[in-house]
Amino acid sequence: MSAYFAFARSSFHSQLAYRNEVWANIFGKLVQVFARVAIWQAAYAGIGGTVVDGVSLQQMVTYALLGGAVMGATRPERIIGEIGRSLKTGDIAVWLLKPLSYPLYLFANECGSFGYRLMTQVIPTVVFTALFYGMLPPASLFDCLMFIAFWALSFTLLFLMSALFGLVAFWLMTSFSLDWILGALLQLFSGLLIPFWFFPEPLAAIARHLPFAWVVYYPNAVYLGRLSTADVWLHFGLGLGWAALFLTGVLWLWRCASGRITVQGG
Question: Transmembrane stretches, by residue range (predicted)?
């Protein structure tokens, strides 16, 4: 495990080499958050009310801020791009000679990047926008603690989804468009743009059971107290089930990809 910790630490420190990029990223995050909040402010103003279907404007502002925080610290395109570059350069074959797991290396690498983005981009952006717009506190201490647990689950699921899509590149021989496909699915079915309580049925029912819902919607719903205690535990268990399924898929694809490299490499 010390080797993977070293990979995570190396990833964190390598990000520090691009300090000027921090300000550009913070500015970009601020623009995205301001745009999301402005959309919901305009939508509620157009309706002429502060509560729609039991959801207040302040709850939606908080949802928009949290959505940026949950998604902002993880970069699926970076994970898929890393696999694509390793495949293109042939560096991926080196991992067959190492007594290490390539998927675990990717996870450790992303953990380091996650920590860097969390401290330098996400937290400053959320603090600034929360002071500017106002942000609701967690509905309860239980919801606060479970939000943290759901956030960790969200990070794990998003990594596994990205790794699964990235490993498909071994058969396509390119990662081109794979990150775009995953990004499009996340934008629509994660609840990032529109919470599921505003979705029409039966699309809302379908979206609530897809794995993408655990990336943004359920962490935010837990934070706002939109789920009962029983539902929180139920959906956390279902999320763990999705994570186990994706983990199995990643390990299986990597085994198949390893065999593919060995056969083609002689």
Answer: 114-136, 148-173, 180-199, 232-254
